Amino acid sequence: MKNPAQSDSRTLIGIDPGKNTGIAIYRDGALCELHTLSPDMIEALLVRVRPDLVVYEDSRQQSHVFSRGVSARATLKIARNVGEIDMLCRQIEDMCRRHGLDSLGVSPLRKGAKVDAGRFAQITDWTARSNQHERDAAMVAHPYRRADLGKIRPAIKSGSGEGRKPTAPAW
Fold first, then answer.
1. Contact 101, 46 (CB under 8 A)
2. Residue 127 and which of 31, 40, 83, 94 are 20 to 30 A apart at CA?
3. 145: closest CA among 17, 22, 24?
4. pTM for the complete prediction?
5. Is the per-residue pLDDT at 164 higher than 50?
6. Spacing of C-alpha 12 from chain mean position
């Protein structure tokens, strides 16, 4: 975590893990940057930005897979994709721990439904181009952009590897 004496500003990164990983960067509560990266670029971004908190959509927190009405072949593909995302979530946690960054996993259900560009602009004031991965990354971090980190500390996995399973925000 950043030394509070370094700056009064706070940086938060939201991550929507996947083959096309969505990244959102908030500074002092305002959405400043959106990116789509390959998973192998995440660690370099974390090292460069050194956010106060990394919030990522954590598929491991949701036990069910939505496979109603699809073929067995499609169900297997969904299972493989979910397994890849689960692995990426573990890697994000490990990256944060290695670099002393606090992280918070949020279930897909808690993140909420996908939003289109128009609704996204209303929520975040972001009017530039964005794709669904970037919007998902922004929305997973949006509730925490101005949160008092001290109040949600029990839910945060600290960069030292300490911390408990995330619970509902305490504000």
1. yes
2. 40
3. 24
4. 0.80
5. no
6. 9
